[in-house]
Amino acid sequence: MSRIGKQPVKVSNDVKLSITGNTVSIEGPKGKLSQVFHPEILIEYNQQDKQIFVKRSSDEKYHKALHGLTRALVSNMILGVTKGYSKNLEIIGLGYSAKVQGKDLVLVLGYTHPVHLEIPKGIKVDVTNPTNPAKLTVSGPDKQMVGQFSAVIRGKKPPEPYKGMGIKYENEIIKRKAGKAFTSGAA
Fold this sequence. Notes:
With 187 residues, the protein is α+β, with helices and mostly antiparallel strands.
């Protein structure tokens, strides 16, 4: 049996859960999530113990993989609606900045025009420091959406290896390269 898949998912008291067929809907203090899972994976909720159990229909390799994946996705949904997920980004560069205008994130990244990104529904972007180094936090209940939108932001200007300018995750380490060096010896 799958090591991850066989572990039950604990549900806290402030979470409302409904399972209809292969659709799981979860509502908590941070938001509401719903997802459709593979029909050959069975998801059961034990109200007495407040636990979710994930079971598979056979021991085929495909079903074993789906078993662990489904359990991890359900666990991420529970964690997302109770605590939420967040990613911190830093924008490093002279003249680079970030600000939120209505439903758009506006980034000034050294291009001839500012970059406008529409903030997806369910995602919240906070700019704590608007200029160099600009710091922003992407947060929300859906782990996949938070990670995807953070990757889209980072993809607009990835950090370059010579000066480290660009958008990077907060704890990301950029491998630096030496630039052209002056050689003092004449050949």
